[in-house]
Amino acid sequence: MVTVRVRTKGLQQFISQTENVIKALDEGVLTDELLKKTVRRAKYRGPRDKGNLVSGIQGTKTGRHSFKIICEVTNKRGDPYPAYLEEGTRFIRVGTPENPRAIRSTSGKTAFLPYISWAAWKTAQEVDKIFKDKILKYYS
After folding, report:
1. Which residues have a Cβ under 8 Å from the Cβ of 101 and sit 6 or more positions away?
2. At residue 51, does pLDDT exceed 90?
3. Which helix (H) or strand (E) holds 36?
4. pTM attached to this predicted model
5. Contact (CB, 8 A) for 45 and 118
C-alpha cells in the first residue's frame, strides 16, 4: 500500500486576500476606475471649440456597480448641443461607438462623434485589463 500525504500552505492567506478582493469590489473600486477612465476618454475625444463641451462632461456613480456620464452645456442660443454631437442630426453625421466618425475640432484636435458612447465602448473593451491592474494587486 502506498500512502501520499499532501499538505497545503498559504490557503488561509489566499482566503484572506480573496475576502479583500470581494470587499474592494463591493466598495466599487472597479466601478470607480471604469468611471474615471470613461470620463477621461470622453473629454479627450470630445469635440473642442472653446472647451465648454469638454469641461461639461461629468461622471457620477449611481450605485456601487453603476455610473452615468452627463454633459449638460448649452450654446449661445441656449440649445443643449451635446446631444446633437453624440446622437447626430440630419445635418450632423455621427458614427457608431464601435466605428465613430473622426473629425478635426476647431482646436485642431481629432475628435469622435459620438464621443461619450465611444468612450464607454472603448473602456468596456479593456475591463479585463483594468480588473487585473486594480483588483489582482490584492493577491500580491
Report:
1. 93, 94, 95, 112, 113
2. no
3. helix 29-45
4. 0.84
5. yes
